[in-house]
Amino acid sequence: MERIAVVEDSQEERNALISCLERYKAQKNENIKWICFDSAFDFLESKEYFDMVFFDIMLPGMTGMEAAQKLRKYDNDIIIIFVTNMSSFAIKSYEVDALDYILKPISYERVEFKLTKAISMIRSRGETSLVIHDLDGRLVRISSGQIYYIEVTGHKLRYCTEKGSFYEKGTLSQKAEILEKHNFARCNACYLVNLKHIFAVNGYYLEMRNGDNLRISQPKKKEFMGKLANYMGQGKC
Fold it and tell me: Exposure check for the chain: N or C terminus, fewer CB within 10 A?
């Protein structure tokens, strides 16, 4: 299910976009869900996870463009589509890696085209995203493909990623339930490993692409190596 944020302060414009989403859901038989926000501040403060966001440009207090710039500091995956009555914003939208923009007045045909394109992109990734409530109080979303491995120590998880390390409270079992279907596997009780980031296997040690070495426990080795062999056999390395 794709989750969509609609950030629009005008009730009339918001209703027009919602009407398009409802029509799209019914006609395409798509499992999409949306939540509306009156301001960029409310959206950025939300703890909700979204796959895409429709940003009105001329929002009060903080424009949609300013909100998108803040959003991109911690979320590179969410798809941004601007809604505006000024085509001059088209070039500026590329600065925040927006997918596209929709000119007002909103029409179903415009929304249908952009939404189909966005959903196709999301589903072609073959990955998922995690929202991490880190120990510094930040809300960070990370694509599963960017994670090298997750390490547990006590009740704290460390995410070793392409963007650095992030920490939150939790259990490895909870993350394994989500990520094992996305080519993650446990090499021992302490590590959940992204199979695509394994560079080499040396006996009971994994050499990760970031240079870290992780131990494979004897009880886990047969199962883990089977999953790795299956992954490699699918030509995903």
Answer: N
